[in-house]
Amino acid sequence: MKRFLAFFVSFILICGITVQAEEIQEPTGLHAQAAVLMDADSGRVLFDKNGDEVLANASTTKILTCILALEEGNLDDIVTASETAAVQPRVHLGMKAGEQFVLRDLLYSLMLESHNDSAVAIAEHIAGSTEEFANKMNQKANKIGCRNTYYITPNGLDAVDEKGSHSTTASDLAKLMSYCIMESEQKDMFITITGTPKYSFSNVAGTRNFSCSNHNSFLTMMEGAFSGKTGFTGKAGYCYVGALERDGKTFVVALLACGWPNNKNYKWSDTKKLMEYGVENFSYRSVEEKIELPRIQVQDGIAENGEMFEKAYAEPEVDYGNDIDFSFLLRKDEKVEVSIECEETLQAPLKKGHKIGTVIYSLNGTEIQQFPIVVDESIEKRNLSWIFEEIAEMYFKL
Length: 398
Description:
This protein has 9 helices and 22 strands. By secondary structure, the chain is an alpha+beta fold.
């Protein structure tokens, strides 16, 4: 068994900033039953109110419908409306069975006006049926890391089946939004669609024209707001998920059960409060603290100077890769802790770059980054041939 020298290091990185003794006030008085503020870049939750509570999420579901259609479909595809799509309840585009549309146009209908019939038509086009599309939705959500999400419909209308109810959590919803705007290969198109104020189109036949307006009012409420989706059902209440970028920082807010009629504006005040909290209190701080690592004896290794009776030592170093100047998004009063785990002794031979330990960066007890500790040079093993050569060389020098 390998022996590890665990330095759960007592030093704490202040990251070059002297923090004044001030108490940071987290947001209070939120209307939402569940709310999350997330750093979209890292996926770290910066604020949480019942973030893991499973709740209905209404049309915020459509961000997953949209990203799946973008990833698996073609924007120029022709979509034919089925009878099922045509009878979807309001809010709807009003498509007729057999009517054809371009997929690109239906995605704007889906995300700007939140049309339920467009969602079903898209789902059937991509997967053949809404049931199979729901399977794709759940597989995708699970792959992204949404562990408490179960989707039944592509439009977010309340539904229950033998496996459960259509639902998610604020944490999962924020994670999904972060994927859509930061990781997906189709993120640029997703952002373009969800950030468009108005959009007009016609059916393929050119016999009917349609116009859509974006119902995400938060796009004009704060500088840097660029994407989002609203939602409402009688069970879910008002829901919202949105994104904002400011000063190189990207935040996502997810709200569930944020009031019922006549309180549709609660979601905007909650979102603004959380976004302002993120913008004002979090910033990127570089971690440039040099870590001193003691050299480690290498059993049966040839010393650097080649002397027979000298002990061999390895000089460990941290392999930061391309992140030598890495930084963390930290609150003003947060500090990064560093711990080091490294092997106590080593056995020759060793190749340059061989991993012998790990440097772990943690915040509030949660690991946020780690880097390997490696050997900086190769060390050969002593063997009988080398020993005889050394003895012979010593003999002939006498």
